[in-house]
Amino acid sequence: MQGAIHNSTSRLVTSLTQLVRPSRTARTAGLRPFLSAKMMAGDTEGDQPRRTKVLTMDTMNPHIKLMEYAVRGPIVARANELEKQLEQGASKPFNDIVKCNIGDAHAMGQRPLTFLRQVVALCTYPKLLEDPSFPEDAKNRARRILHSCKGGSIGSYSESPGLDVIREDAADYIQRRDGGIPSNPNDIILSAGASEGIRCVLKLLVSGKGKERSGVMIPIPQYPLYSATLAEIDAIQINYYLDEANAWGLDVAELQRSIDKARTHCTPRCIVVINPGNPTGQVISRSNIEDVIKFAHREGLVIVADEVYQDNVYAKGSHFHSFKKVLTELGDEYSNQELMSFHSTSKGYMGECGLRGGYCEIINLDTEVKTQLFKLISAKLCPTVSGQAVMDVVVNPPKEGEPSYETFSEEKAHVLSTLAEKAKIVAEAFNSVEGISCNPVMGAMYSFPRIDLPQNAVNKAKEVGKAPDVFYAEHLLEEAGICVVPGSGFGQRPGTYHFRMTILPSVEKFKDVMERFKKFHSSFMARYKDED
Amino acid sequence: MQGAIHNSTSRLVTSLTQLVRPSRTARTAGLRPFLSAKMMAGDTEGDQPRRTKVLTMDTMNPHIKLMEYAVRGPIVARANELEKQLEQGASKPFNDIVKCNIGDAHAMGQRPLTFLRQVVALCTYPKLLEDPSFPEDAKNRARRILHSCKGGSIGSYSESPGLDVIREDAADYIQRRDGGIPSNPNDIILSAGASEGIRCVLKLLVSGKGKERSGVMIPIPQYPLYSATLAEIDAIQINYYLDEANAWGLDVAELQRSIDKARTHCTPRCIVVINPGNPTGQVISRSNIEDVIKFAHREGLVIVADEVYQDNVYAKGSHFHSFKKVLTELGDEYSNQELMSFHSTSKGYMGECGLRGGYCEIINLDTEVKTQLFKLISAKLCPTVSGQAVMDVVVNPPKEGEPSYETFSEEKAHVLSTLAEKAKIVAEAFNSVEGISCNPVMGAMYSFPRIDLPQNAVNKAKEVGKAPDVFYAEHLLEEAGICVVPGSGFGQRPGTYHFRMTILPSVEKFKDVMERFKKFHSSFMARYKDED
After folding, report:
1. In the record, which residues are listed under signal peptide (chains A, B) (predicted)?
2. A197 exposure class (CB count in 10 Å sphere: 0-12, 13-18, 19+)
């Protein structure tokens, strides 16, 4: 994307240069020399005063300027540029760019699930319901969805929280997942990917000025949607550090330190937990989740549980425990604890990022506030109905005995077992490299290895005005064609340096990537070796 | 939607009642009795203090509370309730609810365009590319889109402003539409419906405090996305009134009055123009657009041109003139005038609301600000790729000589001629009713008739704490089963009363609707007749 920006910017500069003639009034950013309406009244067309742009860096929304979203940041832009140069025959020390920056499974070659796409195609073009090559269970799913759509078309608006039948299916899914603990369809809001829902919920809880301003606790390292959204909506970001030495564990003492410090300058209202972790790949234990819930309850925090990787657990002995289930099992004491849990079609085994499906389960929210949340989403009309249909397949997959059950199960198992294999290979490979250490990838789709950067490299980076991990990642891209996201895009303890690399390239491709990586890394380390 | 909320709320209340036992600490909204972390430290689980909800009406985002979106407001909620009651066999003075509240063509029975759905189905399930029953031109469109998708799948993320080929097609469309005036694909941002793009752009230009706070001029009556968004982002809404006596014309003297008044308390930065108008149905003349551009240029305002109804022009002698074309033809003097123009797949002849497609063309935006806008959308990852594919068909329809050309043209012409017919019938029908006057529906999808309410009705409404137009619309729903949106949801001159009714029911249905309407209206007027 940033590549597109860069190209777009340079092309735009050209086009602007062609279009914009020098202005008669001096171009003083932020100081627009308006004449009063009365002075204008007698002007003829030819005498219109020139003026500078209305929107400049000085006059635009200052919060947007503060946003950063490294997953699609400048290094990715540069990777896109290099890719185009390679296509045009440029000579580089590598033959391709491997994009390990984003959790985009289909882009890395994963095939869509047959059943899922059949259902969405049937909903899109109902004439296919007459096509005998489509299985009956896919047709039944599509018929049910279409029946729920006004006018029988996915081209009509759904209710703003989504089609009723899909909300029902989501609630059933959650109930099965959580061993029978009830879920209410009226607590489900479908959204275009989890991101949209997360932004809505965070927006809902921002208020106050000065010390009263809402603060939101987020893990460091975190997925930068959170820091970007908090910057955009002008909420206070409260960092709590995950414990790298303890497999990126979540320690309540650290939560306490973090909130106590935050209370001196803002009003903490929410804690975000990403489980399985992004970018860290940790899977939180049941007792750890209990600790977090007790902490949030004690401290008066809404819990935002980002559980979009709930299907992506690989480590032996690790299991996904939903916050909803643990909260409910903690008993009535906690029955007023507000919790929002998010799921997505973009991750898991389906990897349907582009179709934009997701849901949020809203638990124990004040009734009036919930009405306000529904009002907020009503102005957005509705999330994409085809994205809702994708979510429906995820929460209501083929059942045993249905015609598509076997194929679906095989395709799902294949994706998940390959991911598990790669999760293992990646961490082991990194740990075999001197100067790199990597926690096990217990879940999600990323490794987050730590680089022991020589002081010389740190100094050199500072000399050229770069964060040391950005400096390293830039060299990794320029010298080995591997695109990763520097750790500073997620946050890391000061003085430590990391990068996030997805586990999505194919097993074969990954061997190539690791060879290229090792070669680059030893060359980089030799170049900046510290004098003893 | 609001129906869903209401149901959801009542069911939620039940479930909360079941779940939440009385709390040990008193529930004092907004005053959460926290104990300090230290006091807590020694507590065992059973001794956890109870607390009230974190998020209450007192602690939630105050701006969201101010939002209103009448198109999905309480009257629609009530319509949904009545619909369910009818389904359950309740006896009412009507047999069905006619939903004339929202521009949702498929919900009212319009069929999707064959070619459009074929292309999206092919993109969704590429195995259909082998199916000989799909026409070659649809396959070619799908292949081109899939080739532009990473990994050849619409399940991969696109670039945040959309797939390159679709941005190119949109630019070509604009260039054709505007008689050859160039459009740059880098100026196109695809979005999930126009609403998403409009929200982003408005967000971009909010800044300042007190008198420096950004103001946005919007027409009254307006489409409530604008008032809702301005409330949400805490920008100042500046009303300018359209001239009902002059076919909802846009008068520059009124713009001047409005901005002069606004400058006393805020900093106007933007003017929104909806053309063709929603809810007013007016189509602005070329010279009127020139006036608006000159006004915006003189006063230092970004122009937001909501042109989603650009295909919906029915009145003889009326034509759609894009702001882009008029701006460009005004010459170099205006080449620094910032303009954002929006289009959507939800309206026009396609009516694909649920698939969420749209684009924004960004003209003359400062290069650095444009980069910031692209950064803002990057955290949203990308608009739904299937919605992008829908937009592609709209901007790149079958060409003469292609296999689908005739069917596509026939389907399109049928929809548009039927809408034109209904636009005429509706206005005429309303004008034949005593106490109702309605401007011609020149374009868009709505009539916005004025009701001359008897003073007795106004008094009665006030007595029961309702706006008089809401009171009228509620009775229209309860007595005739017709769901419209009261004029106060869009804004209207004080002391005037209107409602918005779509022209989407079928011609036959509309005859029924008008009979029901007339019967209701004369009964209502008789009931509240003013004493002479």
Report:
1. none
2. buried
* Single-letter amino acid, residue B80: N
CA angle (B283, B285, B286) in 5-degree steps? 135
Please name the residue that has the structure tokens 């004092």.
Answer: B28
pTM of the model: 0.90
Residues with Cβ < 8 Å from B251, sequence gap 6 or more?
B243
Residue B207 to residue A37, Cβ atoms within 8 A = no
Place of tokens 């939002």: B67
The mean pLDDT value for B471-499 works out to 95
Task: Please report, for residues A143, B97, B519, B526, the alpha-carbon distance to residue B83 in angstroms, rounded to integers and kept in the order given.
Answer: 22, 6, 21, 27
- In the DSSP assignment, the letter for residue B133 is T
CA distances from A300 to B18, B36, B50, B53 (A): 22, 11, 10, 8
The secondary structure element, H or E, covering residue A377 is helix A367-378
One DSSP character per residue, B509-524 reads HHHHHHHHHHHHHHHH
Phi, psi of B438 (to 5 degrees): -140, 125
CA distance B211 to A117: 53
Helices in A153-277 by DSSP H: which ranges? 164-177, 193-204, 225-233, 252-262
Distance CA A138, CA B139 (A): 23
Residue A296: C-alpha distances to residues A251, A255, A262, A324, B54 (Å): 13, 10, 14, 14, 10
Q: How close is the nearest chain B Cα to the Cα of A161, in Å?
A: 8
Per-residue CA distances from B428 to B487, B508, B521 (Å): 19, 16, 16
Work out the percent of chain B whose per-residue pLDDT is above 70. Answer: 90
Contact A381 B53 (CB under 8 A): no
Domains by residue range for chain A, with CATH: 2-60 (no CATH), 74-109+410-527 (3.90.1150.10)
Contact status, residue A309 vs residue A443, Cβ threshold 8 Å: yes
Contacts of residue B289, Cβ cutoff 8 Å, sequence gap at least 6? B273, B275, B321, B323, B326
Nearest to A433 by CA among A311, A318, A494, A521: A521
What is the reported pLDDT for A15? 37
Of A106, A187, A338, which has the smallest distance from its Cβ to B155's Cβ?
Answer: A106
Nearest to B60 among A120, A124, A207 (CB): A207
CA distances from B229 to B65, B209, B279 (A): 12, 18, 17
* CA–CA separation, A220 and A241 (whole Å): 5
Higher-pLDDT residue of A144 and B18 is A144
Burial call A70-80: b when 16+ CB within 10 Å, e when fewer:
bbbbebbbbbb
The C-alpha atoms of residue B41 and residue A524 are separated, in whole angstroms, by 48
Q: Cβ(A38)–Cβ(A13) under 8 Å?
A: no
Query: Are the C-beta atoms of residues A271 and A217 closer than 8 Å to each other?
Result: yes
DSSP β-bridge partners for residue A219: A240
For A261, the closest chain B residue by CA position comes to B37
Spell out the residues 6+ positions from residue B451 whose beta carbon is closer than 8 angstroms to its own. Answer: B435, B436, B469, B472, B497, B498, B499
Q: What's the CA gap between A30 and A421, in Å, rounded?
A: 55
The phi, psi pair for B255, rounded to 5°, reads: -60, -45
Residue A1 host element (H or E): none
Selection from B104, B67, B68, B96 nearest residue B80 by Cα:
B96
Q: Kindly state whether B261 is in contact with chain A, defined as any CB-CB distance less than 8 angstroms.
A: no
Contacts 24+ apart (CB under 8 A), A254-262: A255/A217, A255/A292, A255/A295, A256/A295, A256/B37, A258/A217, A259/A217, A259/A299, A259/B37, A260/B37, A262/A215, A262/A217, A262/A236, A262/A238
- pLDDT, tens only, A401-442: 999 999 999 999 999 999 999 999 999 999 999 999 999 999
Q: What is the pLDDT of residue B51?
A: 63
Which residues 224-243 of A have a C-beta within 8 angstroms of B? 224-225, 228-229, 232
Cα–Cα distance measured from residue A315 to residue A429, given in angstroms and rounded to the nearest whole number: 16
